[in-house]
């Protein structure tokens, strides 16, 4: 068990060294934003930081990719998850290192009830951008959908460790903590 955990940790470290940051992830531009997000107690500033992080995650130098991504988001926002999924399939085919493409595709899978596919895509997002608090939040929702509240709580707590300003995620985690650990001394 200890050897397996060590190997998993080693693999994750190697992936962060070997796998280049995908287009749209923002790379080192994100580091100071995440540090500020964890440090601030100002809700308005935190919201501004979150928006900037999302902008960097969405950014991509490929104009065609941005066009397809926007079409997918438009379809998603209009509850046409099948069309959104098709667009996000194209996005991840055009650039498999684009974490936000995988994240959006995971959301479409989730909305279509394809939880296994959503989990696979979320794992891909987190391998490309381990600080993706949106993907961690989604991961928690998928785990809830498949009846794994303990795993959901871990995912929500991981999202909160990165972004402590996720009020609804904190509420969900607190509710789960009360439910999962009801009657259990922590």
Walk me through the structure.
The chain has 10 helices and no strands. With 186 residues, it is an all-alpha fold. The chain has a single domain (21-180), classed as Tetratricopeptide repeat domain (Serine Threonine Protein Phosphatase 5, Tetratricopeptide repeat). Helix 4 (63-77) runs antiparallel to helix 5 (81-94). The longest helix has 17 residues, at 2-18. The two termini are 23 Å apart. This is Tetratricopeptide repeat protein.
Low-confidence parts lasting 5 or more residues at pLDDT below 50?
1-24
Shape: globular
CATH class: Mainly Alpha
Taken in chain order, the helices and strands follow as HHHHHHHHHH
Instruction: Provide the CATH architecture.
Output: Alpha Horseshoe
Summarize the structure.
This protein is an all-alpha fold and 186 residues long. Helix content is 75%, strand content 0%. This is Tetratricopeptide repeat protein.
Architecture blueprint of SSEs:
Layout (H helix, E strand, L loop, with lengths): L1 H17 L12 H9 L3 H16 L4 H15 L3 H14 L4 H13 L3 H14 L4 H13 L3 H14 L4 H14 L6
Helix pairs in contact: 2-3, 4-5, 5-6, 6-7, 6-8, 7-8, 8-9, 9-10
Fill in the keyword field for this structure.
single chain; 186 residues; mainly alpha; Serine Threonine Protein Phosphatase 5, Tetratricopeptide repeat; disordered N terminus
């Amino acid at each position: 068990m200890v050897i397996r955990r060590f190997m998993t940790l080693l693999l994750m470290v190697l992936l962060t060294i070997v796998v280049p940051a995908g287009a749209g992830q923002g790379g080192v531009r994100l580091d100071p934003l995440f540090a500020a997000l964890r440090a601030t107690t100002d809700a308005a500033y935190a919201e501004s930081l979150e928006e900037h992080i999302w902008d960097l995650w969405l950014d991509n130098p490929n104009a065609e990719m941005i066009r397809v991504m926007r079409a997918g988001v438009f379809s998603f926002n209009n509850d046409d998850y099948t069309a959104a999924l098709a667009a996000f399939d194209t996005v991840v085919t055009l650039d498999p290192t684009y974490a936000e493409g995988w994240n959006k595709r995971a959301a479409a899978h989730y909305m279509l009830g394809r939880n296994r596919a959503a989990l696979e895509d979320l794992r891909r997002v987190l391998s490309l951008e381990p600080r993706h608090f949106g993907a961690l939040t989604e991961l928690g929702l998928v785990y809830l959908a498949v009846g794994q509240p303990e795993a959901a709580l871990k995912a929500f707590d991981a999202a909160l460790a990165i972004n402590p300003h996720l009020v609804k995620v904190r509420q969900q985690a607190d509710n789960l903590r009360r439910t999962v650990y009801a009657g259990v001394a922590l």
